[in-house]
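Figure 3 (text version): structure tokens given as input.
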């Protein structure tokens, strides 16, 4: 069986009539259905005309060009007593208007225009755009009259395309434009195709350090189309961003490539780890290229600076107890490492400067991260030992911007007992300096 068609009625009332009604060189099939429809099917079994009469055709149908217009008509009488003369009409005509066949452009917003005509009246027109992967875009618009046109505005990605318009009339006849037209959209967006490797970067204590980022940009229309002043870039770690401070066009070559060198500054307190590089640049048509492929390692720096650099308990009486140092020692984190609970004090016995056989045992001195109260909180801290590293208890020292008041903490000292010595000056002159260090 080649094909079949169901009319939806209980029967087809007369034997089909065969003739080329559409004038396309292929035979069509004319049938009368008991639901009062006269149907014309083309050689593939598709309905190309459907006409509702007041009664069904029960005596068959004749075919002839009775008005000498070059087209065949269908003539038959119906059970309603009416004789009908039906014409199938001519298939509609579609024409492609623009963009012209073979258009090549950098623009991605494309206007398509098609017009159509039909002797009986138009119904709708559809724009089809496709590429090698299949249908890319289609949209149908309703149209009317015997001649009309439609315009579609379509945003199209770069690539190679074919397109055509498909039109239908009110008699369900249809056609395409005579040929498919081609369209090429060039990828006009500039590309940051190369970002240089960046060696590991070492922080500089208590200041900033520069990171140099070199990259190359390609533009299909030539590097002169690039907007050099539009460069935006940064290096980032998590939610920390350091924008480019300076960019320079250092070289151009082959008419299409531009090389740039940019600088970003990292601070001593910025987090160690893998930092990402983000770069973008626009061309003169505001098309922007973006590259996030670059990265580098920002090394860790452990460093502190203390102030003041001496501890004093002033003038004391023998037998004094729980005497606080005259001022705390501020410890500044001048690197990017978290030094919380990693700061130790190496104390030395305080030797008499006149009679060195007397000394203040450093075990009578405590260190703490808090002060105040009665007795003073610093007097309840960790007791020092001669020449040993003693951690300052609960001492938090995260990295931070010292100028903004972050990245620093105070350590407090207390002489808990002053016994078994004679009056004189006691110091580290003979025993060696105390050390505050990272452990």
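Below: residues designed for each position.
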């Amino acid at each position: 069986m080649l094909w079949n068609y169901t009319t939806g009625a209980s029967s087809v009332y007369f034997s089909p009539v065969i003739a080329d009604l559409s004038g396309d060189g292929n035979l069509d099939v004319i049938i009368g259905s008991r639901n009062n429809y006269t149907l014309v099917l083309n050689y593939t079994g598709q309905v190309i005309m459907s006409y509702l009469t007041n009664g069904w055709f029960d005596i068959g149908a004749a075919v002839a060009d009775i008005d000498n217009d070059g087209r065949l008509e269908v003539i038959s009488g119906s059970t309603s007593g009416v004789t009908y003369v039906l014409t199938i009409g001519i298939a509609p005509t579609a024409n492609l208007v623009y963009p012209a066949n073979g258009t090549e452009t950098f623009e991605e917003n494309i206007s398509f225009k098609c017009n159509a005509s039909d002797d009986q009246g138009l119904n709708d027109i559809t724009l089809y755009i496709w590429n090698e992967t299949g249908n890319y875009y289609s949209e149908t618009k309703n149209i009317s009259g015997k001649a009309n046109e439609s315009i579609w505005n379509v945003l199209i990605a770069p690539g190679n395309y074919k397109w055509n318009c498909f039109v239908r009339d009110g008699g369900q006849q249809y056609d395409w434009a005579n040929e498919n037209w081609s369209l090429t959209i060039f990828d006009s967006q500039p590309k940051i195709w190369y970002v240089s490797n960046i060696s590991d970067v070492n922080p500089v204590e208590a200041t900033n350090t520069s990171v140099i980022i070199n990259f190359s940009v390609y533009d299909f229309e030539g590097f002169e189309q690039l907007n050099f002043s539009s460069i935006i870039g940064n290096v980032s770690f998590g939610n920390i961003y350091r924008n480019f401070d300076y960019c320079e066009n250092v070289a151009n070559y082959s008419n299409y490539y531009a090389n740039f060198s940019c600088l970003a500054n990292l601070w001593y307190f910025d987090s160690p780890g893998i930092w990402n590089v983000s770069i973008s640049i626009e061309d003169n048509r505001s098309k922007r290229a973006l590259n996030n492929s670059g990265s580098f390692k920002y090394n860790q720096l452990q460093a502190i600076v203390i102030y003041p650099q001496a501890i004093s308990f002033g003038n004391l009486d023998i037998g004094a107890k729980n005497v606080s140092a005259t001022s705390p020692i501020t410890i500044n984190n001048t690197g990017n490492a978290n030094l919380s609970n990693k700061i130790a004090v190496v104390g030395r016995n305080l030797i008499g400067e006149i009679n060195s056989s007397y000394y203040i045992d450093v075990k009578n001195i405590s260190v703490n991260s808090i002060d105040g109260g009665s007795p003073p909180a610093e007097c309840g801290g960790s007791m020092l030992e001669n020449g040993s590293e003693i951690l300052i208890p609960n001492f938090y020292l995260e990295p931070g911007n010292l100028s903004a008041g972050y990245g620093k903490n105070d350590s407090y000292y207390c002489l808990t007992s002053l016994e078994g010595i004679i009056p004189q000056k006691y110091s580290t002159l003979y025993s060696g300096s105390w050390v505050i260090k990272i452990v």
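The domain at 304-438 is CATH 2.60.40 (Immunoglobulin-like).
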